[in-house]
């Protein structure tokens, strides 16, 4: 296996307080090269998730990363949303999120751009799907020949014993179960899929200790704008989930970056993450009472479409990798050069 200096990565997302942690990792881990971002309906409407991606990449000083708006609805035409967790915009919680300093690309340029990146990197491009998989399913419907030409498709989604939507399903799968079925049950894509299910990502929690490390200061007032932004967003996420879980709630699960961490480890980097995997085929239920459920099959059933499922990782090392990316982001963040009062005055939800 050739270990490249950097993994070219494209993120398909619905930011999202946990999506932005994944974006920070992809943008500032030295082994990752973030070449593009596409957005989809999910935590909020497509307009919001696209605007959030542009605002956040602006905050990070990564205005060279193009943002492509994808699908505004699931394959069945539904729009869901998770305002009870992420707020109305999908990324509520801080007035330090700047107005975007650049515009989204045209929707019609999305698939040609992703195709170009796959061809340019010749078998090395990795795609991270950390939202409902509508864009991913449509892309590979259009270009089935490209399934073989990606290196990995790392996915946050699904739950086997744990669910966060309708009692049987995880949010990203439930929001477009048809798309999830097309992707997860595909014989060719399965060879490239790394799956970080809710059962594993839920064990990675932004506890008070972690939230304080994010702030890295005695107060929000004393922190850099970047750290204050990251702290306020994760704190909002914590408070929203706590409203439903009760006063003893320790901290929110930060799901999406786990899929990026697993990709790093699988590609030979950050080996101390010590990821553990099993290989199993997955069925996705697409209708009835169990719509959006993911069923892990026995190892004898459909081995031709078994995917690599993350079942454990070193959580302490995970946060170390994330916080290292924050150190780099903090050195480069555009918002650190902007007067805080100006950011607050210009803030538009
Ligand atoms: C997933 O759902 C979204 O709300 C999060 O951003 C994450 O991608 C967790 O179930
Ligand atoms: Ca997400």
Characterization of the model:
This protein is of the alpha/beta class and 349 residues long. The protein has helices at residues 19-28, 46-59, 83-86, 110-120, 134-142, 171-175, 177-184, 187-190, 198-201, 208-215, 225-245, 256-266, 315-332, 340-346, and strands spanning 7-13, 32-39, 67-69, 126-129, 152-156, 193-196, 276-280, 282-284, 294-296, 307-312. An 8-stranded mixed sheet has the order 3-2-1-4-5-6-10-7, sandwiched between helices. A two-stranded antiparallel sheet has the order 8-9. It is globular, with a radius of gyration of 19 Å. The termini are far apart. Bound molecules: beta-D-ribofuranose (BDR) and calcium ion. Beta-D-ribofuranose binds at residues 16, 18-19, 43, 82, 85, 130-131, 156, 164, 170-172, 198, 255-256.
Summarize the helices and strands and which ones pair or pack.
Blueprint: E1 7-13, H1 19-28, E2 32-39, H2 46-59, E3 67-69, H3 83-86, H4 110-120, E4 126-129, H5 134-142, E5 152-156, H6 171-175, H7 177-184, H8 187-190, E6 193-196, H9 198-201, H10 208-215, H11 225-245, H12 256-266, E7 276-280, E8 282-284, E9 294-296, E10 307-312, H13 315-332, H14 340-346
Parallel strand pairs: 1-2, 1-4, 2-3, 4-5, 5-6, 6-10
Antiparallel strand pairs: 7-10, 8-9
Helix pairs in contact: 1-12, 1-13, 5-7, 10-11
Beta-D-ribofuranose (BDR) is lined by residues 16, 18-19, 43, 82, 85, 130-131, 156, 164, 170-172, 198, 255-256.
């Amino acid at each position: 296996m050739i270990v490249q200096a950097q993994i070219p990565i494209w993120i398909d997302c619905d930011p999202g307080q946990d999506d932005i942690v994944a974006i920070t990792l992809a943008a500032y881990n030295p082994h990752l090269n973030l070449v593009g971002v596409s957005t989809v309906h999910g935590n909020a409407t497509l307009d919001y998730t696209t605007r959030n991606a542009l605002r956040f990449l602006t905050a990070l000083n990564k205005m060279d990363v193009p943002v492509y708006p994808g699908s505004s609805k699931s394959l069945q035409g539904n729009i869901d949303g998770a305002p009870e967790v992420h707020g109305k915009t999908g990324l509520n919680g801080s007035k330090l999120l700047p107005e975007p300093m650049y515009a989204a690309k045209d929707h019609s340029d999305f698939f040609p751009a992703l195709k170009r990146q796959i061809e340019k990197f010749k078998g090395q491009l990795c795609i991270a799907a950390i939202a409902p998989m509508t864009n991913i399913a449509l892309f590979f419907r259009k270009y089935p020949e490209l399934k073989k030409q990606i290196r990995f498709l790392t996915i946050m989604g699904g739950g086997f014993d744990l669910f966060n939507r309708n009692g049987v399903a995880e949010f990203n799968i439930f929001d477009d179960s048809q798309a999830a079925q097309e992707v997860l049950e595909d014989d060719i894509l399965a060879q490239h899929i790394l799956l970080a299910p809710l059962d594993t990502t839920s064990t990675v929690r932004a506890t008070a200790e972690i939230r304080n490390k994010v702030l890295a200061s005695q107060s929000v007032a004393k922190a850099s704008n970047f750290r204050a932004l990251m702290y306020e967003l994760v704190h909002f996420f914590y408070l929203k989930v706590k409203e439903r879980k009760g006063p003893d709630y320790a901290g929110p699960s930060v799901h999406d970056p786990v899929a990026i961490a697993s990709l790093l480890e699988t590609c030979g980097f950050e080996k101390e993450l010590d990821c553990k995997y099993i290989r199993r085929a997955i069925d996705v239920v697409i209708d009835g009472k169990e719509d959006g459920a993911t069923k892990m099959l026995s190892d004898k059933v459909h081995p031709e479409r078994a995917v690599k499922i993350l079942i454990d990782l070193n959580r302490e090392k995970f946060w170390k990798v994330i916080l290292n990316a924050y150190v780099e982001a903090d050195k480069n963040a555009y918002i650190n050069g902007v007067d805080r009062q100006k950011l607050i005055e210009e803030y538009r939800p």
